Amino acid sequence: MIVVSYLGGIFDVDGVLVDSPHERAWRESLQDLMEHEWRDISAQTSYTPERFTPEVYQEVMAGMPRMSGARAALEYFGVPDPQRRAEEYAARKQVRVVELIEAGRFTAYPDALRFLLAVKDAGIRVASASSSKNAKLFLRQIRLDTFAEEQGLAYGFVRAGLTLLDVFDGDVTGRDFPRGKPDPMIFLAAAAELGLGPQACFVVEDASSGVRAAKAGRMAAIGVARLDDEELLADAGADLVVTTLDDVDVASLTEGQLVRRAPGASRRDPPRA
Question: Does residue 236 contact residue 223 with C-beta atoms inside 8 Å?
Answer without folding.
Answer: yes
